[in-house]
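Researcher: I'm preparing a figure for a lab meeting and need a structural model of a single chain. I don't have an experimental structure, so a prediction will have to do for now. The sequence is pasted below. Please return the structure as tokens so I can convert it later.
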Amino acid sequence: GGPRRLLLVSNSTLHGGGYLGHCQQHIKSFLGEKVKRVLFVPYALHDRDAYARTVRERFESLGYGLDSIHESCDPVEAVRKSEAIFIGGGNTFRLLKALYDNCLMQEIRKRVLEDGIPYVGSSAGTNVATISINTTNDMPIVYPPSLQALGLVPFNINPHYLDPDVKSTHMGETREERIRQYHEEPNTPPVLGLREGAMLLVEGDKATLQGVTGARLFLRGKKPTEHEPGTDFSFLLTGSNLQN
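Model: Understood. Here is the structure written out token by token.
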């Protein structure tokens, strides 16, 4: 197997573009020419057939065949045979529960971390690639057996990160406040707030911010920091990033 290869995208659709339109070139260069077929995991949405149709159309336009895991009579075997995995957005709790229910957690981890097959995540698919889904924006509409996720990276991501709107009269909590509350708990890992249009490319022990927007990094007990596309986030991949 090769080193882990992940492309973790904040969002599937960017204003003014079609499904995965803003990141299709990133996906194509990430998957390359060796991959012929992609295994899609549509568990985050209720209508899996419609979801698979949308995703198949996009991936076929990029030159890749697509198999949806929900059409397989043996999901574990589908993961074992896969050349690449794409997990799309929707509700993170629903997605994680289905991954546990179908006994796919260990199998996906093994394929990605040991066998080195490429993993693309978008939104909820990015959330489940991290250490846990504690920093998702979604409502807990179902109850997974654990909030522990695939752990393909040793930190959390907050997809669709939104900056506080200084002109807004909305007095509810900002995303920044919610992440700070998470970090009030002991031993909580870093949280990378990926704005719409941002993505993180992980190749082995190297992590790089890509896309058209920046990201905000939250470390427990420290002020959040602002980062532009091109930032090297490799230090987040080592265990020493953890704050006490």
